[in-house]
Amino acid sequence: HNQHIGFQLLKLYFSIINMFLGRRKIQKAGDVKPTAFEENCAQELYNIEMQHTGLKADLYPLHITAAREITTDGKKAVVLFVPYTQLADYHKIQKTLVEELEKKFADAHVMIVANRTILGKSWKRNPLNKGPIPRSRTLKTVQEAVLDDIVYPSEIVGKQTVLRTDGNKTMKVYLDPKEQVQLENKLETFSAVYKTLTSKDVKFQFATSR
């Protein structure tokens, strides 16, 4: 009986250590405490790092800064926000990493989006800032970059803005048809995530192969 209690305590000890180690996979700005969902995402990243030998070395230095769950029409998306400086390193392992994460978050599509700072009018008003806003930091450029992040590793091959009958605009985004089989069931989720992050309507479809 004592042996059983000892074993249970040991299991509890290791699970606490594991949770503590998982926390290093999320680093939020300032002293903001991660939400329970963000801690869960960080833990899953840590578990993959420990269990997947092919990802371990590449995943070790990486972390997330936030995570959100977005649900629309019964479809779920998990969006992991990562430091912009780490995006290229995430891209190297993204295909395998997303496949592993989607096993953990059943029925959810996982996307990785970089944190980018938008510089607005207050930046222009600061006398210390000379010249125009750097192009990579304007609202339009940041929103275009978010589109690229959402669909990665697929590529956007064309865009078209359509004026709807109610006077609002919808952007049509054409994806590389090579990816149609893998991404067909993700198009609505892409639109929902983009709308949540930017308040803009986008319709994703595959370009017709010529």
Task: Name the beta content range.
Answer: 15-25%
- Major sheet: size, sense and barrel closure? 3 strands, mixed
The proportion of residues forming helix, as a percent range, comes to 40-55%
Distance between the first and last residues' Cα: 72 Å
How does the helix and strand content classify structurally?
Answer: alpha/beta
Sum this structure up briefly:
It is built from eight helices and six strands, in the order H-H-H-E-E-H-E-H-H-E-E-H-H-E.
Descriptive report:
The protein is of the alpha/beta class. Helices cover 46% and strands 20% of the residues. The chain is built from eight helices and six strands; from the N terminus they run αααββαβααββααβ. Strands 1-2-3 form a three-stranded mixed sheet. It has a three-stranded mixed sheet with strand order 4-5-6. β2, α4 and β3 form a beta-alpha-beta unit. α1 packs across α2, α2 packs across α3 and α6 packs antiparallel against α8.
List keywords for this structure.
elongated, alpha/beta, 6 strands, 210 residues, 3-stranded mixed sheet, 46% helix
List the topology elements:
Layout: H1 2-22, H2 36-51, H3 53-59, E1 66-72, E2 75-82, H4 87-104, E3 108-114, H5 121-125, H6 139-151, E4 156-163, E5 169-175, H7 180-183, H8 187-198, E6 202-206
Parallel strand pairs: 2-3, 5-6
Antiparallel strand pairs: 1-2, 4-5
